[in-house]
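ok so i was messing around last nite and threw this chain in just to see what happens. nothing serious, just curious
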Amino acid sequence: MRTFRVTALCLASVLALSGCGAEVEPPAGASSTAAAKNAAVTLTNCGRKVTFDKVPERVVTNDVGITELMFALGLEDRMAGFAMPEDKGDLRNVPWKAGYDKVKWLSKGQLTRENVLDARADMVFAGWNYGFREEGGFTPEALKKLGIASYVLTESCRNGRAGDARGIMPPLEALYTDLTNLGKLFGVQERAAALVAGFRERIAAVVAKAPRGADRPRVFLYDSGQEQPLTSGRYAAPEQIISAAGGVNIMRDLKDSWTAVGWESVVERDPEIIVIVDYGDVSAGQKRAFLLSYPALRKVSAVRNKRIFVLDYADLVESPRNASAVARLGAYVRTVAGGR
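result:
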């Protein structure tokens, strides 16, 4: 499988805080002291109160964004491994390389009951369609019966009656919520608060320079698919990444995170920019060539003007890379808005 480039991500202060190999903060206040003594910690996760009887010591994670949330908090010493396909990026130059070097790569697919048990995990950190799935019974409920705790990625929390629509809050708030919750659970509240503050500050700086009103370009997020494109609705990270960058996500009315749509809806909404998600066996260059040559899109503004921007997979799922993605896309959006 191919790999893709990862760029520098965070503010220097945030990188310093999120460097790999950091120890858990010493107790500083009642909640940290409680965590240090393995007292129970109760969090709100996907709208439900979840109590952890002790601080997890052998966490396994599923996928790149979730894994890097742990690394950004300096929690690699609390991890027993991660699962991640090889097509999610070149990990040699990321700020968390030491974490990847230290923590065992359990699977190049999704987590399974077998590799979780083999790792002697005491907590699984994953998301719906980011590891957790009804098929095969890999769910928090099933893991609980095995004595294994779970934490569900907030971006992936289910919201629909059918149980498959995902997302319960604005996606960047989901990121901040998970960092705050994990900080409380593992006794690293100060580190979590510093990360959240740094991300908020960097994104606010982009928002301050972003186009306003009618000057905001219409943006379509293209993940994959030819017969039907997979894109981002209201609750996936691209919605707020696009908005903070100064654009308008043309699919923001969809009350879901990642979902498929019809090409006719893309044509009707006429995006001025298309953002490609770079991952998988189909390269960003191949995706771009398809979009530019697909007859149904020939009159779409972004295609006519070849305004196509590429971001990495890990930029566009909930992860510590989101703030950097806002900054890079924001620079491109301002160029397009100024060149109309």
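not much to say yet. The two ends are 38 Å apart (CA to CA).
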